[in-house]
Design goal:
single chain, alpha/beta, 17 helices, 24 strands
Length: about 500
C-alpha cells in the first residue's frame, strides 16, 4: 500500500487483576483507509481502543503509540483528542438533558464577550448535523431523541473535532439501514480526505463492503492482518474463533407439528405518535418445532407486535390462542403462565440486572420454583442454575460473577438460559445475536436447534437477513402496519423479503 502509516501501536500489553487483556499486540493504520478490527467479545478490541483514546493512561500498560511517526504519551482522553483521535463508542456517552448543539461542542462552547455564543454554536452544530444527514433542531434535548438519532449526534460530535483517525465501535448497532448506509458514505468521504477510520464490527458484510484491510484479534493477541480483496470470510471467522466452523448456520430439518400459538387480529398503538397504529390487524401462527422468522425494516413494528403479544406493551385489539385455547394476556406474568417467553431486543435495559450475579439472573423467572413460602431454597437454586451455567457454556469464573463483567455474548446466553429454565412452549427471540461475536452467535444458533428438536416453537426477529433466512422455516414480513406476506424457506430470498418490506398500504400482496 503506497500510503503513509498514520498510526502504530507496538507491543501493547495490558493486565487486569488475574487476567492479561492484551498480550504484545501490534498493528498499524494507513492514511486514508478504513481498517476493520475484528475479534470475538473479550478479544481485546475495546481495551486496545481505550488505550488509544487515553481512557487507560500510559502508566497502566506496556508498549508504545505513534501517530504520524511521533511517539505519543496519553495520560487522559483530552491528550488523545488533541492528537487527532476521535472516538465513537457503542454505548451512547453524552448528556441526555443537554441540547444537541451543547453535546456536539461539549467542553468547547464558543465564547463571545465572555458569554457563550449560542447563535454561532447552533449554526456550527447544524453544519455537522447536515453532514451526517440528520434533520433535527439543534436545540432539541437529547433525551427526546431515539437511539439511532443519538448515535448520529455522537458521530457529528466526533466529526466536529476534525479527527485524523476516527475509531467507531459497533457504530451501526442502533442505526436503521438507511442511516447505516449514510454513515458508510461519510466514512468513504473521510477516506477521500485522507482521514483514517478504524471500524470495530461483528458484521462481516460491513467489513467486506467497506474496509480496505482487516486486522484480527483473538484472546488478547494480534492474529493476522489482510488486504480485504485477498481474504475470504471463512478465514477471518477461523482466525477469530480459533477453529473452523464448517456450517455457520447449523439449521437442521426438524419435524414440524401442530399449531402451538395463534395470534389473531392484533392492532398495536404507535409508541410515540398518538392516535396512530404501528400494527394494524395482524394475524399469524407458529407450530411445534418451527422457527418462524419476522422480517421488516427498523421501525416497521416487529418488536411492538411481539411485546404486545407478551403483554409487555399495550394493544388495541387482538386475541392469543395457545393449543387452540384462548388465553387472556394483559401482563408478562400472564404470558409466562401460558408458556410464552420473550428475550427482548435490549438485553441491558430489559434482559439483565447488571449488578447481580449470573446465578441471581438465572433465578429471576424461577423464584416460585426454587422457593417455598417466600423463602429461597439455596440448594435447589444452585442445582438448577448450575445445570444451565454448564450446558450453555457460559464463559465466566463461576456463577457469582456479576453480569456487567460478562461479554455481550455471555450475557445473552444467561438471558436465554433463564427463559429456557422455565421450559416455555413458545420462545420469542428479538434480535438475539445483536452486538455479539461470531462464535457466540454460532452457539446461540445451536441452542435454538436443541430447543426446536424438543418441540419448542420459536419466533425469531432479526435485522440480519442471512441469519433470518438461514435459521427460519417460514418468514413473515411486516411493512407499513401490516403483514405483507409469508414465505416458506424454500422460496425465501433477500430480494423477496426486501420487496415485501417496501410495500405500503396502497400496494397489494398475498398475506400468508
Amino acid at each position: 500500500m503506497d500510503k503513509n502509516v498514520i498510526l502504530e501501536m507496538k507491543h501493547i500489553t495490558k493486565r487486569f487483576p488475574g487476567v492479561v487483556a492484551l498480550d504484545d499486540v501490534s498493528f498499524c493504520a494507513y492514511e486514508g483507509e478504513i481498517l476493520a478490527l475484528c475479534g470475538e467479545n473479550g478479544a481485546g478490541k475495546s481495551t486496545l481502543m481505550k488505550i488509544l483514546s487515553g481512557s487507560y493512561p500510559e502508566t497502566s500498560y506496556e508498549g508504545e503509540i505513534f501517530v504520524s511517526g511521533k511517539q505519543c504519551h496519553f495520560l487522559n482522553p483530552g491528550q488523545s483528542e488533541k492528537t487527532g483521535i476521535g472516538m465513537i463508542y457503542q454505548e451512547i456517552s453524552m448528556h441526555l438533558d443537554m441540547t444537541v448543539a451543547e453535546n456536539i461542542f461539549l467542553g468547547r462552547w464558543p465564547v463571545k464577550n465572555k458569554q457563550v455564543d449560542w447563535k454561532y454554536m447552533n449554526q456550527e452544530a447544524k453544519k455537522y448535523l447536515d453532514l451526517v444527514g440528520l434533520d433535527i433542531d439543534t436545540d432539541s434535548i437529547l433525551r427526546q431523541l431515539g437511539a439511532s438519532q443519538q448515535q448520529m449526534v455522537s458521530i457529528a460530535r466526533a466529526l466536529s473535532k476534525n479527527p485524523k483517525i476516527l475509531v467507531l465501535d459497533e457504530p451501526t448497532s442502533p442505526l436503521t439501514q438507511k442511516e447505516s448506509q449514510r454513515l458508510f458514505e461519510i466514512l468513504h468521504s473521510l477516506k477521500e480526505r485522507g482521514i483514517s477510520c478504524i471500524l470495530i464490527t461483528h458484521k462481516m458484510d460491513e467489513v467486506f463492503q467497506n474496509a480496505d484491510r482487516v486486522t484480527v484479534l483473538r484472546d488478547g493477541r494480534s492474529i493476522a492482518s489482510y488486504p480485504i480483496e485477498g481474504v475470504r470470510e471463512q478465514q477471518i471467522i477461523t482466525d477469530m474463533v480459533g477453529r473452523e466452523i464448517d456450517n455457520f448456520y447449523p439449521k437442521e430439518q426438524v419435524e414440524i407439528g401442530e399449531i402451538v400459538m395463534e395470534v389473531k387480529d392484533f392492532s398495536v398503538p404507535h409508541p410515540s405518535i398518538p392516535g396512530r397504529k404501528i400494527i394494524d390487524h395482524a394475524s399469524f401462527h407458529v407450530c411445534k418445532g418451527e422457527i418462524l422468522g419476522i422480517a421488516g425494516l427498523v421501525g416497521a413494528g416487529r418488536s411492538e407486535l411481539v411485546n404486545a403479544v407478551f403483554g409487555k406493551d399495550p394493544r388495541l385489539s387482538g386475541e392469543v390462542y395457545v393449543h387452540g385455547e384462548k388465553v387472556d394476556i394483559s401482563s408478562p406474568k400472564d404470558a409466562i403462565q401460558s408458556g410464552i417467553a420473550l428475550v427482548t431486543e435490549d438485553r441491558k435495559k430489559d434482559g439483565i440486572v447488571g449488578n447481580m450475579s449470573i446465578r441471581e439472573n438465572l433465578t429471576l423467572p424461577l423464584l416460585s420454583h426454587v422457593s417455598k413460602h417466600g423463602v429461597l431454597n439455596f440448594r435447589k437454586e444452585r442445582a438448577v442454575t448450575s445445570e444451565y451455567f454448564a450446558s450453555l457454556n457460559i464463559k465466566a469464573p463461576d456463577m457469582e460473577t456479576l453480569m456487567q463483567q460478562l461479554s455481550g455474548g455471555n450475557q445473552q446466553k444467561v438471558v436465554l438460559g433463564k427463559w429456557i429454565a422455565r421450559e416455555p412452549q413458545i420462545l420469542i427471540l428479538d434480535e438475539p445475536t445483536r452486538g455479539i461475536d461470531i462464535g457466540a452467535k454460532y452457539e446461540i444458533y445451536k441452542i435454538m436447534m436443541e430447543l426446536v428438536r424438543k418441540g419448542v416453537a420459536i419466533i425469531l426477529i432479526s435485522s440480519e437477513l442471512p441469519e433470518l433466512l438461514s435459521m427460519s422455516d417460514r418468514v413473515l414480513v411486516i411493512s407499513d402496519q401490516k403483514i405483507r406476506g409469508t414465505l416458506d424457506a424454500e422460496e425465501c430470498t433477500q430480494e423477496k423479503v426486501m420487496e415485501l418490506s417496501a410495500l405500503s398500504e396502497k400496494a397489494s400482496s398475498k398475506a400468508g
